[in-house]
């Protein structure tokens, strides 16, 4: 198949330690029990010299494999066929080496070489799991993952910084971007939509640092968030109505609070006939409608030209006959253009931003517009914000790792120069149980006729809205 395989010659290695086994799928809690767990960990880890021999043998096989395969043929093969062929050749090379190692270690070396050639190296077994929310790689140190809101240290790590850098460059090159000393920071995405951030030396002092934010393969809906305890059934019904009646929504929250997931859920209740245009730095939204146009920013090229900013995208999408505009994350002066769009006939537009409370979200919008160079009076900016935004949904990641929707808040207007907000739903914490899990409840604030009542009546949803608010008040009693 590859042409060079029959003529391959091997050299006998000097001597390899026998029965080297490295387990790659076990995970260790970040705070283990002091004595027993520490002793068990020391016992499980391979000795440093054995680990060095393991990587030396793998490096020899990898080098011989690159000489044996025809890369051109490999690139046109189906992934499964290419993996089978590489596994076969690597197995032959390993057999020719006559290394005295266990069969399990041989299989592990071959599988890792397949991952290095065709995939993302040591990340492959982690990317295959659907329960991981974040993958954090800090140089050649052990990789950390987040599972169920808890940080966990694995025993998986890259061979060295150059190995990690090669994988980072492979990831970002797939979306037409680059990362090196001249461009040491990069945002990208994986084919499944996972968000990727890479920062390399000289900015990262401990070696290349890779962070991957995973999204579940199955698209979540609000009903599933109810099962997770993120919101009550009445709160979810209210959010469905808000999405249906084309309220302008701003989703606020901290890092990892579930803003993007919540935005995906809300779009599930948009009329399928509407034309939606999304603007993102790194395309990660998984909208559930058929008529969606996805736009993505572009960084400057090697010469420092060709950059397309978020503000340029938002401006351009206004000429594309959008019915809803969705900005993945508002970070700068594009906040002004989003407010303009919300206020000029594009009802139902949505966006996310980082803030801790609904009131802070409005303050951040004002700050971003001001930092963009707009010389508008403060009162004018606030009037634009309160007339454009109808609802602010606040998401939070609590200290036990759980995620909750803590506020569903209306933006009413201005009193003087102070924005007037009205909470419809809030989440109240009352303590924690013996396992450290937060105890709390969602409750209605008793508002039975919100400011968007007339909008709900226009769309024929006032009865559902009244029933949801009354049921929420009954639950709160």
Task: Describe the secondary-structure layout.
Blueprint: E1 27-29, H1 35-44, H2 48-68, H3 71-75, H4 79-97, H5 103-118, H6 124-127, E2 132-138, E3 144-147, E4 150-154, H7 161-173, E5 185-189, E6 195-199, E7 209-213, H8 222-228, H9 233-244, E8 249-253, H10 259-267, E9 276-280, E10 292-296, H11 310-317, E11 324-327, H12 334-342, E12 350-354, H13 358-371, H14 378-388, E13 391-397, E14 403-415, E15 418-432, E16 438-444, H15 453-458, H16 462-476
Parallel strand pairs: 8-12, 8-13, 9-10, 9-11, 11-12
Antiparallel strand pairs: 1-4, 2-3, 2-7, 3-4, 5-6, 6-7, 13-14, 14-15, 15-16
Q: What can you tell me about this protein's structure?
A:
- This protein has 477 residues and is an alpha/beta fold.
- It is 38% helix and 21% strand.
- The chain is built from 16 helices and 16 strands.
- The strands form two sheets. Strands 10-9-11-12-8-13-14-15-16 form a nine-stranded mixed beta sheet, sandwiched between helices.
- Helix 4 (79-97) packs across helix 5 (103-118), helix 8 packs antiparallel against helix 9 (233-244) and helix 11 packs parallel to helix 12.
- It is elongated.
- The N and C termini lie far apart (73 Å).
- Mean pLDDT is 81; it is low at 1-48.
């Amino acid at each position: 198949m590859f042409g060079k395989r029959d003529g391959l010659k091997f050299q006998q290695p000097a001597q390899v330690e026998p029965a080297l086994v490295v387990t790659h799928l076990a995970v260790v809690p970040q705070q283990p029990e002091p004595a027993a767990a520490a002793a068990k960990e020391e016992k499980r880890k391979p000795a440093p010299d054995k680990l060095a021999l393991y990587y030396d043998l793998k490096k020899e096989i990898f080098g011989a494999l690159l000489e044996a395969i025809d890369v051109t043929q490999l690139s046109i093969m189906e992934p499964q066929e290419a993996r089978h062929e590489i596994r076969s050749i690597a197995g032959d090379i390993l057999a020719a080496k006559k290394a005295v190692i266990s069969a399990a270690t041989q299989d592990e070396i071959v599988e890792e070489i397949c991952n290095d050639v065709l995939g993302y190296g040591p990340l492959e077994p982690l990317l295959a799991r659907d329960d991981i929310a974040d993958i954090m790689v800090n140089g050649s140190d052990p990789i950390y993952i987040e599972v169920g809101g808890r940080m966990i240290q694995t025993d998986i790590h890259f061979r060295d910084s150059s190995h990690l850098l090669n994988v980072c460059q492979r990831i970002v090159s797939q979306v037409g971007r680059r990362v090196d000393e001249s461009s040491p920071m990069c945002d990208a995405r994986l084919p499944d939509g996972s968000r990727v951030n890479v920062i390399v030396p000289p900015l990262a002092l401990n070696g290349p640092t890779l962070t991957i934010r995973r999204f579940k393969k199955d698209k979540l809906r609000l009903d599933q968030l109810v099962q997770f305890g993120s919101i009550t059934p009445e709160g979810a019904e209210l959010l469905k109505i808000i999405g249906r009646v084309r309220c302008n929504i701003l989703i606020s929250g901290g890092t990892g609070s579930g803003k993007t997931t919540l935005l995906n859920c809300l779009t599930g209740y948009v009329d399928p006939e509407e034309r939606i245009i999304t603007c993102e730095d790194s395309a990660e939204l998984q909208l559930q409608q058929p008529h969606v146009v996805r736009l993505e920013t572009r960084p400057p090229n090697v010469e420092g030209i060709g950059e397309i900013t978020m503000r340029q995208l938002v401006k351009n999408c206004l000429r594309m006959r959008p019915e809803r505009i969705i900005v993945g994350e508002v970070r700068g002066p594009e906040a002004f253009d989003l407010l303009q769009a919300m206020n000029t006939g594009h009802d139902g537009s949505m966006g996310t931003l980082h803030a801790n409370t609904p009131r802070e979200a409005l303050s951040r919008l004002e700050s971003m517009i001001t930092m963009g160079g707009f010389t508008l009076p403060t009162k004018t900016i606030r009037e634009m914000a309160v007339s454009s935004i109808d609802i602010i949904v606040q998401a939070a990641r609590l200290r036990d790792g759980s995620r909750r929707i803590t506020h569903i808040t209306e933006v009413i207007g201005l009193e003087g120069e102070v924005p007037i907000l009205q909470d419809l739903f809030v989440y109240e914490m009352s303590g924690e149980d013996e396992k450290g899990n937060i105890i709390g409840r969602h409750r209605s604030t008793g508002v039975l006729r919100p400011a968007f009542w007339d909008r709900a009546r226009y769309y024929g949803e006032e009865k559902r809205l009244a029933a949801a608010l009354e049921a929420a008040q009954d639950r709160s009693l």
